[in-house]
Amino acid sequence: MKGQNKLFIAIIIALVIGVGIGGFVHTQYPESAEPFSKNIKLLGTVFIRLVQMIIAPLVFTTLVVGIAKMSDIKMIGRVGTKAMLWFISASLVSLFIGLILVNWLEPGHITKLPIQDAASAEELLKSSKGFSMEDFVKHIIPKSIFEAFATNEVLQIVVFSIMFGIALANLGEEYSQPVIKLFDIVAHGILKMVGYIMWFAPLGVLGAIAAVVATNGFEIFKVYAIYLRDFFFALAILWLVLLLVGYLILGNRLFELLKRIKAPLLIAFSTTSSEAVFPKLVEELERFGCNNRVVSFILPLGYSFNLDGSMMYMTFASIFIAQIYGIEMTVGQQITMLLVLMLTSKGIAGVPRASLVIIVATCSMFGIPPEGIALILPIDHFCDMGRSMTNVLGNALATSAVSKWEGQLENHGGNM
């Protein structure tokens, strides 16, 4: 685990340097903050794009190999059912925690936020207006697998990969084995690339953090202190629940898992991208002792259906906007909103700023001014840091739990 520790330390150092550089530019050279942010953000863009480059082929090869190697359709169904039960339960718990805490803390009634120009939310408003069941279906089922690969539509790739993997599993070893072997080699080759790409992470973290601090400065934390405080308190409660459930299932091995995934958690927090750590998470979960077939099957599904941090944020932000505008919602309306969010959020995996798009669509549905999203846009980056980190934790726990239930969790993974 020496290399892992070096990476973790490098990311921490980059995070501190990024905040320092951003703060220096904001205070000393405010007129240069915007061009500086635009340029230094490229470091983050390079890292994210390097990771995005390998996500589609990695999801496709690992998922196809994982399902094809299972060969037993009953096993595929059993593992899939356990995974979906975890995903649905975790999503409902996350939504409820967000709903309960935003009603208890009432940040929208206390916080005096500056009036934002609704034009800043214009793009999101346009994105959400066309939201319908037809769009939902189109987003899940690929028209062309090549188009899905080109646009990194993870959910569409997952759908195609599951069908292709099941077909291979039923084709007979004579035909399926050469294909499985080829994809297995490709998957391992891509995982080897992960090791190289991850050393770009500290630069990506530095660029992303420096850009945000240079543009907004430290004042934004003061203005939005209550909202951020309440949101991160709600996230802490969600973490407590997830870790408690994880401990009940994994026992003391939970602490080993947390050590394993500390670098992915920090990268997700710093870059606001849970996608950025997908390849590294696959690697670390296999080293932890999770069966590679289970990891290959569940983790891509989790990235589409198990976004615990984003789920909690959706109820929290939606009710917060209603509070800001003084709109009182009955318990029945709030429960209905929760169920709507539960369904609609499952079809937008991989969409940029997906949580915000769904919040806008939901606000419109319940008579809450969707322009209210402009109020939280300035600090959405900081909320997204917590959301992304929580999404990664939720998926790591889901994969480990299902591996344990299947009796496929080794007691000794790779070297620490």
Number of helices: 21
Q: Between the first and last Cα atoms, what is the distance in angstroms? A: 4 Å
Contiguous low-pLDDT stretches (5 residues minimum) are 347-352
SS-based class: mainly alpha
How do the helices and strands follow one another from N- to C-terminus? HHHHHHHHHHHHHHHHHHHHH
The rounded Rg comes to: 21 Å
Mean of all residue-level pLDDT scores: 80
Task: Record the SSE blueprint.
Blueprint: H1 2-28, H2 33-70, H3 73-105, H4 107-110, H5 122-129, H6 133-140, H7 145-150, H8 154-169, H9 173-197, H10 201-216, H11 219-223, H12 225-250, H13 253-260, H14 262-271, H15 278-288, H16 292-305, H17 308-324, H18 331-344, H19 354-365, H20 373-376, H21 380-405
Helix pairs in contact: 1-10, 1-14, 2-8, 2-9, 2-10, 2-16, 3-12, 3-16, 3-17, 3-18, 3-21, 5-19, 8-16, 9-15, 12-17, 12-21, 14-21, 15-16, 16-21, 17-18, 17-19, 17-21
Give a concise summary.
By secondary structure, this protein is mostly helical.
